[in-house]
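Exam revision sheet. Question 4 asks you to relate a sequence to its structure. Input first:
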Amino acid sequence: MEFGLYQAVQLISLITAIFCYKGLKKFKLTAFVPLLILVCIVEFIAGNYKMWGWPSNYIVYDLYFILSTPILLYILNNMLAFKKKGQLIYWLINSCLMLFVTYNTFFLQGLHKIDTYSYLTVESFMVIWSLIAIFRQFLEDDAATMLNEHPYFWINGSTVIFGLGILFIMGLSDYIIEKKIFLYGKHIYQYVTKALNFVLYISYSYAFILCRKLTVKQS
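Answer key, structure tokens:
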């Protein structure tokens, strides 16, 4: 049975989110709890696919992507806090995005390979939305809560780093698979994605702690 460091970090992030739930509620980030429960379950199943007798774990990640993306978009929506017109545009764009991801998963690239089109498209939008959130937060920055002390900064900053990393590695995934670039029996992109996950979930945990800290401070 496989349970790597990156999975431990994801589990720690979930525990931290539950512990800091009151703070998450204040900052409208409670959707992280079901998201992280889903993440931990999926990573356990996908990480041990050989134990289940499966030839690959692509189908697990492809289905996870369909389930997790709307939750992430909902969280981003709460952080962006667009007005009515902005909300409408945001959800229209993301509805089209989800339609494409669903079509690509079931009809275009399919469930039994890495759906690179979905990853490249979604992560591009995640980076854009997160950069907008950081920019909006920068404009609203005040002496009470500095930018680097705000949970939204750490969530969006790590999302940008993760997204750019995924865009890079997914852009090369077909080449890596075709050329059979392995390291200790695994495709090199698997190590990169695990490192990116490590950074992402450590940042999430720190953001959750900041939520709790700022909530206690303001109460």
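Marking note for examiners. The chain has a mean pLDDT of 87.
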